[in-house]
């Protein structure tokens, strides 16, 4: 059910093609990092998958058109963390995270003990258990980001889609986040995350999709995609690349003229 496929997906906004005939297959068990500079089309691609933006082409989940699932079916299949995060309601952190269980509950039904355990586990993973009774509107930006990520985790969907989930997090929580994503993928689910943090993506993502100007430039393991040539061509940066037993180490060091 968790195989996600895109076939010639094109998005046109105004007179500009933001995505140009993108075709991808993503399987269960993958932690996919979506990389690319600002304006490359990363957020548009994620929002297209979640059916927020009209598109041409086909998007299928488990071989069936994703649009045919309806809003409820998609909420049980896809959990989405948008790039823009805000909590307007002065409710507790626990109540915000518990919203992730709504797709699995009958209307107006109370959460079960099993639901409560899932919420508690999501809060522990995001290191927000100590914030359980705080009002969500009183949190810092980083704390708010972790609360909303915990809500996504509590949704327990086969596919997680996160748009810049590491933005605003300190280094320890960034590493904890990608470790969590890697563990989720290892359990057989799919995680697709757009990231600007090249070192995190190169070290933790099993697969990197590099996008520029609405097109896929490279797709594969970090060692094949995060190269000095690709970083110079797409980002306009020179980087030091090293490798140890745990994976690739990336350190951007200076600007270079873009060759794309």
Strands in their spatial order, largest beta sheet: 6-7-8-3-9-10
Unreliable segments of 5+ consecutive residues: none
Number of H- or I-type helical stretches = 9
The class by helix and strand makeup works out as alpha/beta
Quickly list its features.
260 residues; alpha/beta; Rossmann fold; six-stranded mixed β-sheet; four-stranded antiparallel β-sheet; globular
Question: If you had to describe this structure to a student in words, what would you say it looks like?
Answer:
Part of the ABC transporter complex HmuTUV involved in hemin import. Responsible for energy coupling to the transport system. Keywords: ATP-binding, Hydrolase, Nucleotide-binding, Translocase, Transport. Its EC number is 3.6.3.-. Residues 4-238 form the ABC transporter domain. GO terms for molecular function: ATP binding; ATP hydrolysis activity. This protein is of the alpha/beta class. The protein has one domain: P-loop containing nucleotide triphosphate hydrolases (Rossmann fold), CATH 3.40.50. It is 32% helix and 30% strand. The chain is built from 9 helices and 12 strands. The chain has helices at 42-49, 70-77, 93-98, 113-125, 141-154, 171-186, 198-204, 222-225, 228-235; strands at residues 4-13, 16-26, 31-35, 56-61, 64-65, 78-81, 159-163, 190-194, 207-212, 215-220, 237-244, 247-255. The strands form 3 sheets. Strands 6-7-8-3-9-10 form a 6-stranded mixed sheet, with helices on both faces. A 4-stranded antiparallel sheet has the order 2-1-4-5, with helices on one face. The protein is globular. The two termini are 37 Å apart. The mean pLDDT is 95.
